[in-house]
What we know:
Blueprint: H1 8-16, E1 21-26, E2 31-34, H2 36-42, H3 46-49, H4 54-57, E3 60-61, H5 74-81, E4 85-86, E5 92-94, E6 100-112, E7 115-125, H6 127-162, H7 171-201, E8 210-212, H8 214-231, E9 235-240, E10 247-249, H9 251-268, E11 274-282, E12 285-292, H10 313-318, H11 326-336, E13 341-346, E14 350-358
Parallel strand pairs: 9-11
Antiparallel strand pairs: 1-2, 1-7, 3-5, 4-6, 5-6, 6-7, 8-10, 11-12, 12-14, 13-14
Helix pairs in contact: 6-7, 7-11, 8-9, 9-11
Amino acid sequence: MQQQPTTMIEYQAVLESIGDGIIVTDKSARIIYMNEAASKMLLWKVEDALGKDMVDVVPAADPQGNIIPKEKRSLYSAINTGVSFSNHIANYYMRRDGTKFPGAITTSPVMFNGETIGAVVSFRDITRNAEIDRMKTEFLSLASHQLRTPLSAMKWFLEMLLDGDAGLLNKEQKEFVTNVDESNNRMIDLVNDLLNITRIESDRIIIDPKPTNLSKLIEDVLVELKPKFQANKQKIIVSCNPNLAEINIDANLIRAVYLNLLSNAIKYTPAGGEITVIVSNKGNEVVSQISDSGLGIPKDEQNKVFSRFFRAKNIIKKVVDGTGLGLYLAKAIVDSSGGKMSFKSEEDKGTTFWFSIPKEGMKAREGQVTLGS
């Protein structure tokens, strides 16, 4: 059996040998320990940092470069709540010279006799990982663009064939061409989803907020989906707070969220089922709730719901159509709008999704493209 470290010096030697940055604070967020890796990453000498408030020593910024206010830092949240946080809303750490680096950051409270006496922050520089993600995003964008043109041409020619522009098709020929057309449409949907995801992840999407009536926006989405839920004889119930004021949002982006959630509800709810949409005021947010009586999501797969290309095992067996990108895209839009998305689901009973938008609306942002362009 190997000898375990028994002295403070030995424990410190273990922490100094760790490649990740480690900072330990007291319950007032003052630094009481910083390892060598943290010192090198942050360009702070250990002796200069000790005793100072960690938030002052290590400012944190969001992906847009905005400094995170002290009261919103995960360090204070961990100390005040006794709960661990990973990356929270701070994605970048600022070095002493003012430069920044993307970090994988975990903040955990230090508990003793049931009380929080401080916190431990571990972090590592993920600049290389971020560069790889950027290259993957650029490749997906390029590949999707290259696929879009031939797929659009195929769609045009297939529609001409189905319309009889090249001569009438017999029953068997029409069935074959219809199958090809449906498969081509699924590929177009996949390419469009991939393009939209790469645009959002690279912050190239234009956000153009305007006062919008959410009730009217939902009504327009349901008009588009009407053939689908009528074919399934499904009942759609919509309830919007009558006191709901217009909200300053990019209607094109939020429309995509409603379209995705409602399309899924229709797709995965059996014929004759019921789908409910409720929009209400809750504090400083407007909350939308979409509930269905469909297949539900298995409990052991619910942690993957917002992952790319995820489709639950019970759904794959019954519904072939789907890319597994819709919920990932919807959550990315809500997150970029300053809102939150969550869900509750029970297999064979149904699913409820919630998403919120701040009442103050979305912040305008210049970009290069719009969603779906």
